[in-house]
Every structure is written in structure tokens, then in C-alpha cells.
Design brief:
Layout: H1 2-25, E1 40-52, E2 58-63, E3 73-78, E4 93-101, E5 105-112, E6 142-144, E7 150-152, E8 160-166, H2 176-193, E9 198-204, H3 212-221, E10 229-232, H4 236-245, E11 250-253, E12 256-259, E13 263-266, E14 272-276, H5 283-294
Parallel strand pairs: 8-9, 9-10
Antiparallel strand pairs: 1-2, 1-4, 2-3, 4-5, 6-7, 8-13, 11-12, 13-14
Helix pairs in contact: 2-5
């Protein structure tokens, strides 16, 4: 038995030496596992600055067509480094890199350029008699939720209500998808901390495509629970009225919408408390404002 064990051990060692020699002779590479690299797209874009929000974290740019990604339109873009726009002003022609990943997008390396650009038309600032200001009562409005049932704002009187605007085909991950991800988190946060005292409403401004059935499927992607979060659509007239109430800017073209962002907080007594006009708010920040409203 002892002799047999010695033979087996010797044979195994010999085989290991032979295989090592073969690997060296044929230069067999040693493969080490590496961390996955995030997919990232980089687009070179030309446009003209429409406006810069205070702090420089959001810049509205009327940009040219981005081939294979987005038609020419006016959009608010996120700046990772706001100091890059310190010397820029509305009307400046610019070139920039738009970085797009699965979950985010932002502008980098933005530079002022001379000459003209063939940018999208800027949405016109028109008189808006329906727009409400902070502290004013929000008029009742009626839409249709993801189950096809009527949705009226006044039905949530006594609760803190958050209203935002999306469309399900939005191409930028840190626009509508980001807002919906944050509403998903808020649904859980507010539902646990303030049970029965809050409601979320996401209004689509693309009613021709975003039917109740489409909105319901979209809501499933984000775990929407209808008792806490309504995904609303309606007629174009109904939606345009709600959009005007909160000052949403949107413009339809053949390929989709250019739009800015609006997320509004309405108090239990139906008054406008605050409007977030970009995507830089956090669920923690909104939860804190909701707590203030409910504890008044």
C-alpha cells in the first residue's frame, strides 16, 4: 500500500511538471478576474446655452441632433463640475461631451465656441395665467391613473402630495428614469414613516403613447403600489393644464419631447409648498420637507 501511494504521488508530480512545461512552451496566458467595467457612451455635442440655474449644476442647452441617440431639442443637462460654466452665459455657443451610462448622464469638458449652431428652437416664454406660486392653493384637476380610474387631486386632501412629470420613452437615464427611481424610494420611505398621510403622482405628458396600460407596466418596473403612487395620464388638454399649473416647459417633435423637470410638494390643505426644478434633489431632502409640512 505504501509503495502504491508513493507511485501515485510521483505520477501526479510528474504530470504537473509536464503540463507547466507545455504551458510555458506555448505561452498559455494566466487569466485573472477583473472588475466589470461600466458601459459608458460619450457623445460630442454642439449647442447654445439657454439658461444656467443658480449654482451651475443644471444648464439648459438647445443642442444639435445627436446621431443615434437624441434629436435636436432643448434640454436641462447635469454638470458634474459646475465651475466649468462660471465664465459662460445664456446665448453662448458651446461644444461639450455628454457622458451616458446605464443609470446616469452628465456634461463634461464644456467649451465656448465662436460661430453659429443649428440648434433646436428654444421654447418660447409665453404668458401663463394658470401658473401657481408658492403658498397659493392648487386648483383641483382630474386625470386617469394606471388602472384606468379617475384621479382627482382633491381626493388626497389631508395628505402631503408630490407631483412630478415624466414620459415613459424618455432617453436620458437621469431624467424621467431617475425621477421614477427616486419616487420609488420615496414611496417606501414615506409609506413607512407617514402611513396614510402621503401620495405620489407621476403625470405623463405623452398621452398618445402613455396609455393607462403602458403606465401600469412602467410602474411595475419601479415597484409602484397604487395606494401610494399613481401614474397618471389623460387627455392632452387635461395634461397641458396640469403642466401649466407647475410651469413645466415641454416641446414635442417628431422623435419625442424636450422638457425640463418639475417636482411639486402640495400641503395637506392643498397649497403649493415647493417646486424642485431639476434632478438634483434627494429622497432624504424631500422626506424632510414632507415631515415639516405634516408636523405644522
Amino acid at each position: 500500500m505504501k509503495t502504491r501511494m508513493i507511485v501515485i504521488t510521483f505520477t501526479a508530480l510528474t504530470l504537473a511538471i509536464v503540463l507547466s512545461a507545455v504551458a510555458i512552451h506555448w505561452q498559455v496566458p494566466i487569466v485573472k478576474p477583473t472588475a466589470p467595467i461600466a458601459s459608458e457612451q460619450v457623445f460630442n455635442v454642439t449647442g447654445r446655452i439657454v439658461s444656467i440655474e443658480p449654482g451651475g449644476r443644471t444648464v439648459h442647452i438647445a443642442h444639435e441632433d445627436i446621431p443615434d441617440f437624441m434629436p435636436a431639442m432643448t434640454m436641462p443637462f447635469t454638470m458634474r463640475h459646475p465651475e466649468q460654466v462660471a465664465d459662460l452665459a445664456p446665448g453662448d455657443a458651446v461644444q461639450f461631451h455628454l457622458i451616458v451610462t446605464k443609470d446616469d448622464s452628465w456634461v463634461s469638458e464644456i467649451d465656448k465656441v465662436s460661430g453659429t449652431t443649428r440648434t433646436a428652437s428654444q421654447p418660447l416664454a409665453v404668458a401663463n395665467p394658470d401658473r401657481i406660486e408658492t403658498g397659493e392653493a392648487v386648483p383641483d384637476f382630474e386625470l386617469v391613473n394606471q388602472d384606468g380610474a379617475p384621479l382627482k387631486l382633491d381626493a388626497y386632501r389631508g395628505s402631503a402630495v408630490l407631483v412630478t412629470f415624466i414620459y415613459t420613452r424618455c432617453p436620458l437615464p437621469n431624467f424621467c428614469p431617475l425621477i421614477s427611481n427616486r419616487f420609488s424610494e420615496l414611496q417606501d420611505r414615506l409609506g413607512k414613516k407617514f402611513p396614510g398621510k402621503t401620495h405620489l403622482i407621476s403625470v405623463s405628458f405623452d398621452p398618445q403613447f402613455d396609455t393607462p396600460a403602458v403606465m401600469k407596466d412602467y410602474g411595475k418596473r419601479f415597484g409602484a403600489r397604487s395606494n401610494l403612487w399613481s401614474l397618471a395620464t389623460g387627455t392632452q388638454q387635461q395634461i397641458d393644464y396640469v403642466a401649466r399649473l407647475f410651469g413645466l416647459i415641454k416641446e414635442k417633435d417628431a422623435n419625442g419631447y424636450s422638457h425640463d423637470l418639475r417636482t411639486a410638494l402640495i400641503s395637506p390643505d392643498g397649497k403649493l409648498v415647493h417646486i424642485w426644478r431639476s434632478n438634483v434633489w434627494t429622497p432624504e431632502e424631500v422626506e424632510s420637507r414632507v415631515a415639516e409640512v405634516l408636523h405644522r
